[in-house]
Amino acid sequence: MFESIRAADHGIFVLKNLALPPVVSFIPFPTEIIGEELHGTFADRRTASLFYGSTFVALSFAFNALWSWAAHGRRLVRADTPQPAVDAHTRRSLIGIPT
Questions:
Q1: Confidence of residue 40 (pLDDT cuts 50, 70, 90)
Q2: For the packed helices 28-36 and 42-71, what is the interaxial angle rounded to 10 degrees?
Q3: How far is 56 from 50, CA to CA, in rounded Å?
Q4: What are the tens digits of pLDDT across the range 53-97?
Q5: DSSP of 20-84, one letter per residue?
Q6: Cα distances (Å, whole numbers) of residue 15 to 18, 21, 64
């Protein structure tokens, strides 16, 4: 993603420094919950799995917000990056949320 970005502005810094780190630093907590519930009941394992998965959905939202900010109107995308590549990256990013 950052290979296609030519510059940074205040929005990129806010998203990169205030949206991504909290989610990334939160990942060990649901991972621990998954590990503790491996031998629990089905309901406990399902709840732990949903908690773990929702953490990565939040991470996907944070990355999508970062890319959307940079790619909107080619605001921060390098001039030599072709528009089909930008569109393909956007589509792949949006598919990642429900996946």
A1: confident
A2: 160
A3: 10
A4: 999 999 999 988 888 888 888 878 888 888 898 888 888 888 877
A5: HHHHHHHTHHHHHHHHHTTTS-HHHHHHHHHHHHHHHHHHHHHHHHHHHHHHGGGSSB-TTS-HH
A6: 5, 9, 10
Give the domain range for residue 84. Answer: 2-96
Q: Which of 59, 1, 50 is nearest to 27 (CA)?
A: 59
Distance in angstroms (rounded) separating the CA atoms of residues 88 and 36? 39
Q: What percent of the chain is predicted at pLDDT more than 90?
A: 34
Q: 6: helix, coil or strand?
A: coil
Cα distance between residue 48 and residue 54, in whole Å? 10
Total count of domains within the chain: 1
